[in-house]
Amino acid sequence: MSKVKTHKIIGARSTRLSIIFFLFFILLSMQFDPYNQSQLANIATLLIAVLSITILTGASGQISLGQGAIMAVGGYGSALLVTRLGMSMWLAFILAIFISALFGLFLGLAAARLSGPYLAGTTLVMALAIPSIAVRFESFFSGDIGLSVDYGYPPNWLTNLIGEISIEEWSLYVALPFAALALFAVLNLSNSRSGRTWRAVRDNEVSAALAGINIARTKVIAFVCASALAGLAGAIYGFRGLVAPTVYPTDLSLTLLTAAVIGGLRSIGGAIFGTFVIVFLPDLIGKLTKNWAIPESISNYLPALIIGLLLLLTVILNPRGSAGALEHIRHARQSRKH
Amino acid sequence: MDSFLTAFFSGTSQGAIYALVSLGLVLVWRGAGVVNFAQMGQAMFTTYIASQLIQNNYSYWSAFVIALISGAILGAIVDLGLMRPLTSRKNSQLLNSQSMRTTIPVIASLGILGVLKSLAGIFWAGEERGFPTPVPANSIKIGSTNLAITGFDLFVIGVVFITLVLTTIFFTKTGMGLAMRASALNPEVTRLSGIKVGSVRTLGWAISGTASSLAGLLITPKTNLSPNTLDLLLIVGFTAAVVGGLTSLAGSVLGGFIVGYVIAFVNVYGAPENVFIAILVFLLLALFIRPQGILGSKEVRRV
Prior knowledge:
The complex is a heterodimer of chains A (338) and B (303).
Chain A: H1 12-31, H2 34-59, H3 67-85, H4 89-111, H5 116-136, H6 138-141, E1 147-148, H7 156-162, H8 167-191, H9 193-203, H10 205-210, H11 215-238, E2 242-243, H12 250-263, H13 268-291, H14 296-299, H15 302-317, H16 321-337
Antiparallel strand pairs in A: 1-2
Helix pairs in contact in A: 1-8, 2-8, 2-11, 2-12, 2-13, 3-4, 3-5, 3-11, 4-11, 9-11, 12-13, 12-16, 13-15
Chain B: H1 2-32, H2 39-55, H3 60-88, H4 93-96, H5 98-124, E1 139-142, E2 145-150, H6 151-173, H7 175-185, H8 187-192, H9 197-223, H10 231-244, H11 249-269, H12 275-289
Antiparallel strand pairs in B: 1-2
């Protein structure tokens, strides 16, 4: 954050990067079998939620252990709109953004009074409580059974254009445009005035206040933006098949935070890398354990163990994550040249 | 009247356990400025150790003592191996940021929680198992009427009461307790008066580990033991600590009992599925009405 770039042409760089991201995923999916294509769709979906942590914790310095619960708000919001009102999926996704942003507004108003561990604990309680609301008001949210929703079939114009596609490819094509848009939004946000105010408040509240920044409002805006992203992610995540309390467990919130930390809390590229790690590492470990004939009682817990150790190592060795480590190496190389 | 007594007695015995958890959280928060989200993960691990010993035909009491000792050791390891190097590092750009100094230890403790859970899953296959009680867990009878309290409930209340008395004596009558209070209040001045603040802090982590390990031993006969069972207890303990005041040891105990009664009455008069929502509402109310907690002091609150 040493030099602040302001872009005269709004979003020229962010547009370019989002398009590159989009094309990269399309190219990658062409190399993959159906299972990995659906994993790629998962990455695109979860990336939106991880980006919400990049904004909330990385840029504005507020920790949330309850992003999974906000995903549940978006998921239930869109699923109810589709199943009860017969709304189209795309419209429901857009409305899910607004529903969860509104939820984030209330949450942010409460959270602006809290910081550090208070905020962490309160959002963790929320992560447990929100899914249980669905069980409590069973007739409305249909309880533990959940609401069945899916992406449906690809529209005719698309199949005419690129030929027949599998369900897995279609799920990727649903999630990917939203992921690219989210990436575009976050890239612009972090270079905008709000992004700079967030960082000012994060680094020193007193000096930010002296510079005329309204601390509480800044924190609430960050919460609203992050919740909008997480809600969108939750909606797309739920439409893989089911919106139920078990789809948005507490572990989901912690996994998202892990992805953001491993990649680098303050880096958008890090968020992408971290999401790849949490989705593909368990598969990779699964393959290795099968080759080495490790008993199931161990291999079941191995991914969680290795991801936990990765998180610890990141925090101890380099709290800025892999993105921070890369930057560190680059700096070292440059100073050697001079 | 019957359901009132049921709620009251279960609130007392559960509240006593919550008080232990919240006491453990407050001890570490006062000493190190960290809310240890791995605390009940440590307790789960030591309870598994006790369970393993009992399966290998050790007596309940030797397993009990070994679990408490390993709780203390685990707490000290977490501090020495992770938290102390983390908080003493000054040159990192990320840690220079005000908000990140409190956030990074929280993330680290979540990492420990994940590692402990998966280790427990690997060592003990992760299936749910029961945990024995040292005294029969039947309702106590006076004449022919069943009281709504079991022998084990009385045992829990007794053990927690003894622990709290010992803790109070430790903090008010011994030099080490005085040093702990001093270094929580003002580490710099305490260091200047010749007390090793780092070691005192590690002792705080060890005591906290013992307290939560005890809480794990006392709650698992009712909840059964699996890598995830104690997660709820952490949430409840955190709520109790916030309600009582994160900076006050007496407040944390008080908060534990209050939350215990709230949960017991919601369980008896409402429905069990309301408990999570009740905890969230109660926590938010407490934060809005009295953010420093019932006995916490506003000045000391490190927020």
